[in-house]
Amino acid sequence: MSDVSAVPTPDRNDENFWTAASALVEPPWSEPGQDDAFTMDERVHEAVRALVERISTRVRAYRAAGKPLDPVLMASPDVQLALLRALHEAKQSVERLAESAATVAGRSGANYAQLGAAWGGIKRQSARLKWPHAVVRKAACESIPFRHAGGTAVVHHDADADAWWYTATGADQQDTESEPVHRTYAEAIAGATEYLLAHALPVRQPPA
Question: Which region holds residue 192: left if phi is over 0, alpha if psi is between -120 and 50, else beta?
């Protein structure tokens, strides 16, 4: 396991906060263990089951009749098909979230070899094909938008101020334009990401 005591942990009001936040920590993660994998399966199943309860014809029929659904009915073939459909949606969500994470990491300094290593050890060329716009030349990076938390943002460079700024539209359709006050591209990315997270749509709860 990596020595986490060597990782700087400045507070948000520390003048070195953004410098530390934009510096890539190596190694970026420790390998998940079997317990971590089982816990992930449980959490994914919880999320997917919530979707099944909204889309399953059988479950909705019991709800409409005002009757509780016996847990054994989750093994019904039609409910399992609804589960399979919900799992497909979960896979699509993972792909969208992965693209967002790869883009933010790539725009902040990670290279395709590092993105590939994080995505289960795929090769650099495969990572480039999967996320072609994640890592871009600094001369062009300000012109390519990135998506996060259901919104979009574009980072720009102000040559006169020699500083970075961003425009962003959240998932709630609220938009903003920052001042050119960010010292680095990574700092502007972090500011845009923070805005998009603050304007993400709330998670819908399944009906009771």
Answer: alpha
Strands (E), the chain: 146-148, 151-158, 163-169, 175-177
Cβ contacts of 151 within 8 Å, gap of 6 or more: 168, 169, 170, 171, 195, 196, 199, 200
The full DSSP string for 70-97 is PGGGGGSHHHHHHHHHHHHHHHHHHHHH
The whole-number pLDDT of residue 184 equals 81
pLDDT of residue 163: 85
For 179, residues 6+ apart whose C-beta sits below 8 A from its C-beta are 165
Note the maximum CA span of the chain.
67
Q: What is the pLDDT of residue 2?
A: 60
Q: What confidence score (pLDDT) does residue 189 get? A: 85
**57-62, Cβ contacts within 8 angstroms, sequence gap of 24 or more:** 57/82, 58/82
Structure tokens at 2: 């990596």
Burial call 31-44: b when 16+ CB within 10 Å, e when fewer:
eeeeeeeeeeeeee
Can you list the residues of the chain whose pLDDT is less than 50? 140-141, 206, 208
pTM of the model: 0.71
For residue 160, list its beta bridge partners. Answer: none
3-state secondary structure of 200: coil
Strand partners, 153: 146, 168
